[in-house]
Amino acid sequence: MTTASELRDVALKEFAAAGYLGTSIQAIADRAGVSKASVLYHFASKEALLDAALSPAMEQLGAILPRTAQLAGTDEERQAFLVEFVDLLLEHRLAAQIFITQSGALVDVPVVARAQELIRQIADARPQQSVDDQVRFAVALGGAAYLLAQSGAYLPDGSPDDAQLRESLIRILGELLAPVTAA
């Protein structure tokens, strides 16, 4: 018997591979080895399945939102936030991939709108920063998410394993987001 959790995981992989718009309930059912009716028993629609697939990442993102201001804090606070952020991206890389590559086409889907609102809240939660600081923040965190979402294009076979990639991302994000001292 396939559980709702297993179907959610299959759907996440299918949405990431074929795109939300290119994925049907039948394709998810086929990949899971169940009938379409079994999928619809657990999820009323494809949109409900997308919501279930993306919600764990969004809940975790929402949980770290209050700590975004740590990026302007001490080195230890900044490091703690970056570790949590990179771990979130590594754990939810398929959700990040879907959001980064498909959100423009899914602006009317409520779960995507909620994710976009979380991203805005993260940017707004930081203390007032210069334009350069705002750009550095967006490029660093957005770039890290994009790198993981598109890792096949940027990290060829034989690339670092997740532990090496984690260490590198945390270190480089820390360098990018360190306070800039006046020259």
Question: Any overview of this molecule?
Answer:
The protein is mostly helical and 183 residues long. It has a domain at 52-177: Tetracycline Repressor, domain 2, CATH 1.10.357.10. It has 10 helices and no strands. The chain has helices spanning 4-18, 25-32, 36-42, 46-64, 75-91, 93-102, 110-125, 131-149, 151-154, 162-177. The model has no long low-confidence stretch (mean pLDDT 86).
Low-confidence stretches: none
Helix and strand content put the structural class at: mainly alpha
Q: Write down the overall mean pLDDT.
A: 86
Q: Under the CATH scheme, which architecture of the domain at 52-177 would be assigned?
A: Orthogonal Bundle
Number of H- or I-type helical stretches: 10
Distance between the termini: 64 Å
Strand content: under 5%
C-alpha Rg, in Å?
A: 18 Å
User: Count the strands?
Assistant: 0
Q: Identify the CATH homologous superfamily of the domain at 52-177.
A: Tetracycline Repressor, domain 2
CATH topology (fold) name of the domain at 52-177: Tetracycline Repressor, domain 2
Task: Give the CA-based shape.
Answer: elongated
Biggest pleated-sheet summary: none
CATH C-level class of the domain at 52-177? Mainly Alpha
Helix-residue proportion: over 70%
Order of helices and strands: HHHHHHHHHH
